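[Primary structure, fold]
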Amino acid sequence: MNSKEFRKEAHRFVDWMADYMDEVESYPVKSQVTPKEIYNKLPDCIPDEGESIQEIFRDFKDIILPGVTHWQSPNYYAYFQANTSPPSILAEMLTATLGVQGMKWETSPASTELEEKVVQWLLKAMGFSKDWSGVIQDSASSASLTAILTAREKKSEHHINHKGYSGSEKYRLYCSDQTHSSVEKGAKIAGIGKDNVIKIPTDDRMAMIPEALHSQIKKDLSDGYNPLCIVAALGTTGTLAMDPLKEIAEIAEQYSIWLHVDAAYAGSALILPEYQYLLEGIVQVDSFVFNPHKWLFTNFDCSVYFIKDPTALVNTFAILPEYLKTKSDGHVNNHCDWGIPLGRRFRSLKLWFVLRYYGLQGLQGKLRYHNQIAQWLEKAILENSDFQMIVPLEMNLVCFRYFPSSIQPTLDEANRLNERLLQSVNATGQLFITHTKVKGIYTLRMSIGQTNVSLQHVQAAWQLIKNCALRLQN
């Protein structure tokens, strides 16, 4: 394809992309295809001869698009958001065109230095002190694994990296029973072992109980275990619960345990001064992760990892074969030494576009608006005798259930009823919600943070939920 043909097709694609952004609400939010429906429409092997872009694009629209769940719909309330925005999409187009491999400073100085600068911007905007550094990872899962591995090497004085496990380490990792599964997965990959991930009980707000953590650590020490790492959550996946960071940090400091904070979704809200109180105790924290690709309107993947001691991070991951040696080594940061993969995308470019396009005040305004919409929904639920809030509202995640006052169902009956309600709502294709379980209660979740969601969208969603609930009674 020459540049003339490319230009023609690129215009066609961009026209479609702009139309998609305008028309995304017309698609079923959750894909309505059945298993293997897409697979069976695709040929069994690579075509012998090349096909035109027009043919491929036609099949994209006819075959692939029906199997897409539309995360960018303002009627998407499931899990947490994975938002895009026009400036981020434009930057992704440049990233794809440049094809930068940003593993070392020499391979693209702009990639390294822009990343350093946007991380500094975020640290300042979010209320962190100047003694923090940071780097962009692909996801919070990778960032949490990075934290666990760094904690392991610091505790073992790098013995495990060099010699492997001796069998006598008996490391323990602590998190709440609401913490994201990626922490347990990271412990498995790091060799800590699933059985050594100790789940600490939570209170009525689903936050870790510091006294229970302290008791568990003391018991483990008396039993010959070696406490390695604590993972505190600022915004759990199920209910957006906030672990009490100050109290947990004091325990971590007392026993010299690495403290990692998983703020994958809610961390974006720290650009709002009214939420920076959540950072009380951050001075004792060793690492922190949040995802601009969730609630800061930057395309996946873009996960920002803050680190107090970058030397410990680099000492965990640095490896320098002859073919990677450059004259700038020792004078610049080589971000391939700041995480797991050698290869690195130019992720900072899209983040830079977003931060500049919206500005800090623009970003703050969007996040505050999302929180205000969630407050409206909470009020509507509290005023309806057939629905209940299950946990107090945290930011923009509303956790509730249907509990018809005329029936007064048992717990099991209510759970089955809410499962049916969720399936009924999602089957309409008009919105997409998910669930969790809170102390055995089947709980409906609405995460209100899509880039273009409005109060009118949430009002319509609430009406649809009530209509579906009413039909379940009839």
In short: DSSP finds 15 helices and eleven strands in the chain. The first helix runs from residue 3 to 23. The CA atoms of residues 373 and 455 lie 6 Å apart.
